[in-house]
Amino acid sequence: MAEDIDASHTAGNAATATPSMETATMADIDLSIDAPALPDVPAADGRGDDISIDDIVARIRAAHAQGMAIEDINNRLEVLLTDTATGKPSLRSSPTSAAVPFPLPEPNPAIKEITSEQRGTLSPGSQVWQSPATRSKPPQPHETPRKSAIAGTDSSVWVTEVGHNDHRDAVVTTENCAENSRPQRVTTVGHKRSNRGLYRRGSIYQFRVRVPGDLRDVIGPSHVKRSLQTDSRSLAIRLSRKVASEVEAAFEEARRKKGLAHEGKLLAERPVPTAVAVAKLGGCEITVGKNAGPTLSEVYERYLQDPTKRRSDRTMLAHHTTRRVIEDVFGSERSLATITREDCRDLLETLRWLPVNVGKKFGAIPIRDAASLARADARIKTINATNLNAYMARFATMLNWAVAEEYIGRNPARGLQIAEPVHPQDRRKPFEPWQLRRIFTAPIYTGCRDDQQGYAATGDKVANGARYWVALIALWSGMRLNEVCQLDVADVRVIEGVHCFAVTATSLVGTRDKTLKTKSSERLVPVHPVLHGLGFIAFVEQKRKTGAIKIFDDIPVGARGFRSVAFSRWFSRFLVSANAASARTCFHSFRHGFRDAARNAQIDRDVALRLGGWITGGTHSETADDYGSGYRPQVLFKAISAIEYPELDLSRLMKHMSEACRR
Quick one: 484 and 567 in the same domain? Predict the structure, then answer.
């Protein structure tokens, strides 16, 4: 039957319902069972006796309790309660009565009724069948949370209490409600709260949704996953609803772009670029337009332009190089907030196969494609672990800044580094004594054809420019290559009676081409007595008389403004021509050798660090170093004068210089 037969009692109402105005005869509702006698109801032996709907309900309950099949009860009711003239139910009850479903539902054998005493033992997922006459207490079921019995889950099990009255013979009024109030039966129903698509990975909540079949060829993976970047379940539930809305909008946008049927009401308010709406990033990511926050390019630009940060030109160059690689891998328009830990691990794997000088060797080819070529061809040389970790460290530094500026909640690249195959102390080695001897007995120091293309050929010309002096200065001062190459003539000064190199980014002649690696790089380094003996001061004075600004103006300036680039390349070729090349040695090995020489001379550690421009290390040390003006030049000169290389004999160079001075 399409209609419901209304029961006689409203849900939760303490008073009995009045009998219906419409009645049926007793014979009409005789269910062929020995139902218990009802008060004031004639026996079911004829059709002339009237009976109320309350009595019908009571007979139905009795029939059901004594085992009569629900199907039989339904069939009999359908025949007895149908008006033969209209074909519709002939009984109606008052509008306030609670509804009893008709036909009656078949009970599920696996479902059982439980009593109020059994409520405490209700397990999650159990089901309860309520009889048709069960009436709920208005206005809403009362729910009390209970801890889940399922170990290892965050879901909550709630208990719903639904009450109904069973007495039908007492009428409760305002006068007798105290003594005639009806007892209530309480039916306990358990249900499990579910948050679809929400799960945890470690301590962080994730959201996942299946990609519709009609979009699988566009999106690629079978699921779209998004890190919610929180370990709070309550916040994750709220965020999952937001993400679900974004993903649905992206699906509809993808359908629209693909020309499929779509629901316009689900589209984002502002059009979303296709490349952003559907993106196979890391194999499983999807984002929705710029509503997700600032892009990677925007945040990177703000980071590099931050006026609170002080960076050298060399450092800025490294950051720009890293930025080009990162944006090539992720996409410059990628929302920074959507970059996950998995994405950063994918970046790390891509950089493992990044070819050396990828821009020069492969042109404008995408980084991922270049890495794929290197992975397939063992002949392609890739960057080493040190450079790879430098890329990741600079990217992580930018993300730390983004966290501090509240663009993102956490740094997904934190701590991502690959293990160094070589101990840090072994990455670069100082030159061995035999290497130093070959370097300083090469034709460029003893006599060559010329100091340009013929520097490796024996001749009668001794070089007197950068190719002669730069290596000697590095050997006896420990200065970095770029620090030596960028020296102004004015940077060799007499301070308190001591000739010193003023290593600084400030120029007394107004040039702006000098940079320093770190703040501690700015320092005074006294000129070593050996350099005095070789005639370096005379060489500088000669430059000063000619009006030269740079001491080594014969070194060409590189495309980035650094003179050290060109000299480094020449020096690598020079080591080969002098048979002095060896693994893990380069120009920087002079600096390693200087540090060892300072140790062997038992120079105070703090003084040695000052001479070399090394960071003294530790926050407390750096704070203390801000006090005072540092060591006096005489103290530094005494320390650097103790530097020596017993295995190296430069007497031939000394003799040559004295002869040149006499001429």
Answer: yes
